[in-house]
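Structure (tokenized):
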């Protein structure tokens, strides 16, 4: 996610054991200005692996903000809700310290956006 800088979301996955399945997502969100690069890379070493990737770069659609505002949210809360959904901060198994740091960064980003 960028509010004016350059962000490179690079992901790399290696399939080294037959029967391995994996999916890699490189997502980016441009909140104000900036450059966002999404670079997924898959490398397979054996037959019988299944790997896929998805790369996406975009912005918050004003219609999404307006939709949430029509349902009673103020603009700041609407943007916050969309950003949190985009980041999917509720990652199962995430260490508590890292989860807290992600929450802090999302909160700081929200202040920069508004």
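Design, position by position:
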């Amino acid at each position: 996610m960028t509010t004016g800088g350059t962000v490179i979301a690079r992901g790399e996955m290696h399939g080294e054991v037959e029967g391995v399945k994996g999916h890699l997502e490189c997502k980016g969100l441009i909140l104000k200005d900036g450059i966002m690069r999404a670079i997924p890379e898959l490398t397979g070493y054996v037959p019988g692996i299944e790997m896929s990737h998805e790369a996406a770069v975009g912005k918050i659609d004003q219609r999404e903000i307006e939709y949430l505002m029509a349902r009673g949210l103020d603009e700041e809360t609407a943007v916050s809700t969309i950003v949190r959904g985009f980041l999917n901060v509720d990652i199962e198994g995430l260490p508590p310290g890292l989860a807290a740091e992600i929450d802090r960064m999302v909160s700081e980003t929200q202040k920069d956006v508004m």
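Reviewer-requested clarification: The longest helix spans residues 96-113. Helices lie at 62-70, 75-87, 96-113.
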